[in-house]
């Protein structure tokens, strides 16, 4: 099931994205309530192209994992870490499909990082590995946009990774998906930059949930970013960057100069 968060005629809600049997354009079946509890479909169906897709969730926090693909660690001159490198992106970093990534004043070098994002479906803490899948609502595409020059000069990554618009998410949440071996790709202006598979992750989704929840409570709508494959590169104003993940779809964002 693909669950999207949307805006139409000033109303924000959730809906199930469906492909009509006749092969026509996708439609959105608006739901009553929200997907983090039992819900019903309203029966009101609107063409997907008539709504504005929003970030699929509004997380209280985005917990991100660095250097979770060995080739990516090596391309930046880093060793594979003995324990997961964990950092946060604030809720104000989150932006949606089609929304601009705005170049921050603090940086002159932005990089794209295509990532599988895990959307948490219920409050959880100290989750055992065998129950990790139970706390997941689904998965979406993410771009861990990074001010690389700031990251290189500041030992804490809060500003380099947490500036406004640095966390595009979307286009929707896919709930019926095995995340263990999915193709993940990033293109800039249609040119392939990154191509990998989630099977290359050093630590899989279950391990990351165990590691994170050993220290903190995750809430419904919280997001885990699982790391990026090799091939990260520069973004410039005027670019269009797209993250595509097998079984989910494509998240596309323009890059704009500030002001």
From TrEMBL:
Coiled coil: none annotated. Residues 1-56 form the Rv2993c-like N-terminal domain. Signal peptide: none annotated. The keyword Metal-binding applies. Keywords: Hydrolase, Metal-binding. One of its GO terms (molecular function) is hydrolase activity. Residues 61-256 form the Fumarylacetoacetase-like C-terminal domain. This is Fumarylacetoacetate hydrolase family protein. It comes from Streptomyces boetiae.
């Amino acid at each position: 099931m693909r669950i999207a968060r949307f805006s139409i005629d000033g109303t924000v809600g959730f809906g199930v994205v469906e492909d009509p049997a006749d092969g026509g354009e996708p439609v959105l079946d608006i739901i009553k309530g929200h997907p983090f509890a039992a819900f019903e479909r309203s029966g009101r169906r609107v063409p997907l192209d008539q709504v504005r897709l929003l970030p699929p969730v509004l997380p209280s926090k985005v917990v991100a994992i660095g250097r979770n693909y060995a080739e990516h660690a090596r391309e930046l001159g880093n060793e594979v870490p003995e324990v997961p490198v964990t950092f946060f992106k604030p809720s104000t970093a989150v932006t949606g499909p089609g929304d601009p990534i705005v170049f921050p004043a603090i940086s002159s070098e932005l990089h794209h990082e295509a990532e599988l994002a895990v959307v948490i479906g219920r409050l959880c803490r100290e989750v055992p590995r065998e129950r990790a899948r139970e706390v997941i609502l689904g998965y979406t595409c993410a771009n861990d946009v990074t001010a690389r020059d700031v990251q290189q000069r500041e030992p804490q990554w809060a500003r380099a990774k947490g500036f406004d618009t640095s966390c595009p998410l979307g286009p929707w949440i896919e709930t019926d998906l095995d995340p263990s071996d999915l193709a993940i790709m990033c293109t800039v202006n249609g040119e392939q930059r990154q191509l990998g598979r989630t099977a290359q992750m050093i630590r899989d989704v279950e391990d990351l949930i165990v590691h994170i929840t050993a220290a903190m409570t995750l809430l419904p709508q919280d997001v885990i970013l699982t790391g990026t494959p090799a091939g990260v590169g520069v973004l410039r104003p005027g670019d269009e960057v797209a993250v595509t993940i097998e079984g989910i779809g494509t998240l596309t964002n323009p890059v704009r100069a500030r002001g």
